[in-house]
Write a structure and sequence with these properties.
The chain contains twelve helices and 17 strands. By secondary structure, it is an alpha/beta fold. It folds into two domains: about 230 residues, Rossmann fold (3-Layer(aba) Sandwich), CATH 3.40.50.450; about 100 residues, Winged helix-like DNA-binding domain superfamily/Winged helix DNA-binding domain (Arc Repressor Mutant, subunit A, Orthogonal Bundle). The N terminus and C terminus are likely disordered.
Length: about 350
């Protein structure tokens, strides 16, 4: 991928709306989409390193300035800044790249021929002429709340790393971060003081293993160095950006179970991971999933694979199960001690930590 700041998108590129099937889109999306993707603008922009910059719709002046500085520094290095064109941080990131004379990519919750929000019509027009608009929404489709989740999923599938400037406890930015972690995509967050507005979400990310990033050139250079591509494969330095849980899941094998028990017919135990370079061993709860019913197995896998926990509403939506069934199963697992709610009210698998 080019990181040359002067390597703008080709001037003669086709800028009409193009329809990409799942196979073509899968060439640049992690875990390619199950459906078609529509783009408007210059697809050659996607040959660059792609970094998502997302955050709150209501940032403080300091947070908005941080988004502008980080996106501007990324654009200066030839990175394609990707975001969702929402009011606040997203728009600040897009305009920062455009103001530096560099393209940016909008991942939109509406079709390529529309602008959302309507007040960003000028932004969408600029990006269609100097960048790329990407959506999974077919033309002439009415806006639906599910389109925002589709937009977030498509964004995280497309980027090489994700930066969360600021976020509320319940926000699309945290949803993007959770999806990025599941895909093995590095997540970074800006540290803010406890009293700062929109600091709860980023604090949660940092406590969960996200890497801190600040709006200075050294930090941006270090990030880009870790994402550089060499002969088509990621350099090992990219691993430095992953959260400890991502690294542990991907690289370290399971040891034998520390202990096993059976409660109400559910067989489970704690299996141990040795953390490289540390005197500690992390233990993660595992269940004999073969003895679970299909719906139970689906619910358990969703909770197990979520680095930041999962809410009841998300489980109902992604598993397409009745609310009564989901809440009853969650209550049973909570009473058994298999899962618990974190301080944000999200369900996570119970873990323990022991020392050698």
């Amino acid at each position: 991928m080019s990181t040359d700041g002067q390597d703008n998108c080709s001037q003669g590129a086709h800028r009409g709306v193009q329809e990409l099937d799942a196979q073509r889109a899968g060439l640049w999306l992690k875990r390619g989409p199950a459906h078609k993707v529509w783009v408007r603008g210059d697809l050659s922009c996607l040959h660059r390193i792609r970094i998502g910059v997302v955050g709150s719709r209501r940032p403080s002046p300091k947070q908005a300035q941080c988004a502008t500085m980080i996106a501007g520094l990324l654009a200066d290095k030839g990175v394609l800044v990707c975001s969702g064109a929402a009011i606040g941080v997203d728009a600040a990131a897009h305009w920062a790249a455009l103001d530096r004379g560099q393209p940016t990519a909008i991942f939109s919750p509406v079709s390529c021929r529309e602008a959302y929000p309507k007040s960003h019509q000028k932004l969408f027009q600029r990006v269609s002429n100097h960048g790329l608009i990407v959506t999974s929404i077919a033309p002439e489709t009415a806006l639906h709340i599910s389109h925002f989740r589709q937009r977030n999923r498509l964004l995280t599938q497309a980027v090489d790393a994700l930066i969360v400037i600021c976020a509320d406890r319940r926000s699309g930015s945290l949803q993007c971060a959770r999806q990025a972690w599941r895909l093995g995509i590095p997540v970074m967050a800006c540290p803010w003081s406890d009293g700062e507005i929109n600091s709860v979400g980023t604090l949660h990310l940092l406590q969960s293993g996200a890497r801190a990033i600040s709006p200075n050139e050294d930090a941006i250079n270090a990030l880009i160095d870790c994402l550089q591509v060499d002969d088509g494969s990621k350099l090992l330095s990219r691993d430095l950006l992953l959260s400890p849980l991502q690294t542990r899941r991907r690289k370290l094998p399971l040891c034998s179970a520390l202990s096993t028990r059976t409660i109400d017919g559910t067989h489970f135990g704690w299996q141990r991971y040795a953390t490289a370079g540390s005197s500690q061993e992390s233990s993660i709860l595992v269940i004999d999933e073969l003895k679970l019913g299909p719906n139970e197995r689906m619910l358990w896998s969703r909770i197990r694979d979520s680095d930041l926990g999962v809410s009841t509403e998300e489980l109902i939506e992604c598993c397409n199960l009745p609310r009564s069934e989901v809440t009853q199963q969650l209550l049973q697992w909570v009473l058994q001690g298999l899962v618990h709610r974190d301080v944000y009210g999200r369900f996570v698998v119970s873990t323990t930590l022991s020392t050698k």
